[in-house]
Specification:
Helix content is 0%, strand content 44%. It is mainly beta and 57 residues long.
Amino acid sequence: MAGSFHRVRCADCENEQVVFGKASSVVSCAVCGTTLATPTGGEAELAGDVVETVEAR
């Protein structure tokens, strides 16, 4: 697998959620619904703050 998982903090509600770095669909915050990741065809555009890289490949 050629991608990484990132722990992203939502800018609106401070919830932390794990997101795949090459997400192929829009990822929303599980608490407030704010968009955390938008697919771009390669690396996803992460909208929140990346707290850490959980698993790098």
